[in-house]
Amino acid sequence: MKILAHHPVAGSPLIGLVIICSLLMACALAPEGGPAQPKVDTEADALFQDAEARFDAGDFAAAIEGYNTYLLQAPQGRWAAASLIKVGAAYQRLERPLDALNSYQRVLTEFPDAPYATDAYLEMVELYAQTHRFDQLLELTPPKGQEMLSPGQKVRLFTLRGDAFLAQGYPADAYVQYRAALDLDGDTLTPTEAALTVAARLEESVRQLNLAENQLFLEGESHHGIHALLLYYLGLHQADAGQPDKAVETLSSFAGRYPDHPYIGRAFTLMEEFSHHQQFAPFTIGCLLPLSGPYAAYGKRALQGIELALSDWSTQNWHPMRLVVRDSRGETHTALEALTALAEEGVGAVIGPMVTAEAVAPKAQEMGLPIVAMTQKAGVAGIGSYIFRNFMTPEMQMQALGAYAVETLGLKRFAILYPREPYGERFMQQFWRAVAARGGEVTAVEAYDPKNTDFARPIKQLIGEAVPVDRRLSAPARVQDPRLQANARRGDGPQTLAQHLFASPTAWIMDGYRTTATSPVGATALEDAGRMAVTAKFEAIFLPDSPRKAGLIIPQLAYYDIRHAQLLGTNLWHSPQLLEMARKYVQGAIFTDGVHFETEQTVKDAWPDPAHVFRTAFKTIYTGEPDLIAATAYDTAEILFAIFSESEIRLRRDIKNRLNLAGPFPGITGQTTFSPIGEAQKALHLLQIQGRRFVELQRLLAPPSGPLPTDPPMQQDLFSIDGRYSGYID
């Protein structure tokens, strides 16, 4: 950006005033008792006057020679500073700016207290601006006499410094300088030409601000015109930052507050432009799922849940919901292309994706297209205001399980035995975080190779050497169902899990252990086992692995006398396979899950259990048991169907706002509410293995996550255990 600067000329008011004042001072007599005046050098004065005459005649080269001759004879003479000023002016007329700068710099260096120092500083600022030496302009230190500058000189100085900051790419600093210049010029009804120039440059600095800088200046601005300018450009900056809905809101505010502003027409045009991509075809929802490729089984299960939701909705509502389904194939580039295609087909929101959510979410945010992802990938929901996640995550599971174990069961010491692969490592970290945040202590941690079938070595390393049992810490696991617990109580308190099972109608599952346990010898054996238990080291053991692998490990734990520690697991344990493999050894184990279907209808009133109805319908149509994926997809579709049917939903941002502000939404997986960052919040099922059944203990909302004292780095490339569905999808 070229900056015009004035050039001093012979006889200019600035230079002429300096010379006249100097002559008058030279002719004045010192008052009696005052300081002695320098001795007048008539010969040197004649040299200066000769140089002045040549300068006035326009012979600048000769004038420079004359001034320099004077400076050689009287380097500290009374005309020395004036001579340097005039040499600089002469070099400017000869278009030799570097020589002019050197002359002005000598004034600042050799005569910093002279009245001419301020003049030299201003001329240097002009020259640095003229020659685009912005670094040097900004580094130039003003002399002490800057406070003597006139308002006009200060306006010019602030303007040039603003130009320098703007040229250097610092619009916020430029704004501060221009704003100071406008304050000095005053707020008159008829702005001066200088003020109009500064205002134009201030607008350019505002145009180049980033979003945060614009918001900061807007908050502190009281000037009516400048506030309007900042508000208008804030809308533009929000649009550039991928926030078209906020841009429309800001420009609407601008139009309401400043209806007579020159930019009001532009504001309405931009609002229409920013809102255009927000429009969608009524009742049209997109589905972006992996329907082919390695994750096809998961995508098809989700689509089955969505189709069942559409069928149920269509039989009860008149709104003709339309699904547009696209296959991501579990590939990033295919998913991005499919997202663009869905937007072009006018969908108002998208269910999915599953395995490509991390890559698709930023694009959806940029497009202003709401998506409800079904993934456990960390951080997806926080990418932007249009990104939501409705799926059970490891964090949700472990926060609920940790809170229950510490606060309800009263457990304090925990062991973690986990597979050395991404799934196990993430759950290990999150469980550790959850119990540590509530005062629990992880006293033993051991990893094992998930390919092994013999786990003797990691189990021995986990328990270490045998230690005496602290009877206060060795309480065996108990059945947590209050009804069963009440029936199992005796005079000396609740029975242990083993005692309860041996005496209860479910004792048949113990396969011949009844007589051993109820005999005197058996009772002694149980007591000895309790004394030798390692619960002095830990009261519970957390094992995040598949039902097949847990079914191999849990009996080996019992073999090494880990019989009375409370077993804790993940939603993978919600499987009949675990019951068949571990049988008596897994009794009393507790874990969480996002969905739980009773095998029979348990509600006896006039209204059937929605989960039971869903399970029955799913099995009838698809000849298979529904799972968490199908149930979550069903709930997600139902939530969007309800929102799309509302009359005030016209734009995509209306859908986004409705998801954020409304709730809880009822569903098969429970009551769902979305947090401010788009994360689904719902109560998980706390389940316990009792006999051959999974019995629900309670529903528990996962509390906020707490600190983890030693949090090892979390691996990001996560896959399901054993190449099969584990409830963990990225």
How would you summarize what this structure contains?
The protein has 730 residues and is of the alpha/beta class. It is 51% helix and 9% strand.
Write up what this structure looks like.
The protein is built from 29 helices and 14 strands. Among the domains are: 134 residues, Serine Threonine Protein Phosphatase 5, Tetratricopeptide repeat, CATH 1.25.40.10; 191 residues, Response regulator (Rossmann fold, 3-Layer(aba) Sandwich); 144 residues, Rossmann fold (3-Layer(aba) Sandwich), CATH 3.40.50. With 730 residues, the chain is α/β, with parallel strands linked by helices. The strands form four sheets. Strands 2-1-3-4-5 form a five-stranded parallel β-sheet. The N terminus and C terminus are likely disordered. Helix 11 runs antiparallel to helix 12. 51% of the residues lie in helices and 9% in strands.
Distance between the termini: 50 Å
CATH H-level superfamily title of the domain at 279-392 and 604-680:
Response regulator
Q: Structural class of the helices, strands and pairings?
A: alpha/beta
Strand order of the largest sheet: 2-1-3-4-5
Question: Largest sheet, if any?
Answer: 5 strands, parallel
**CATH C-level category of the domain at 279-392 and 604-680:** Alpha Beta
The portion of residues assigned to helices is 40-55%
Number of helices: 29
Poorly predicted runs: 1-39, 465-519, 528-535, 704-730
Based on CA atoms alone, the radius of gyration comes out at 40 Å
Determine the CATH topology of the domain at 279-392 and 604-680.
Rossmann fold
Oligomer: single chain
Number of strands: 14
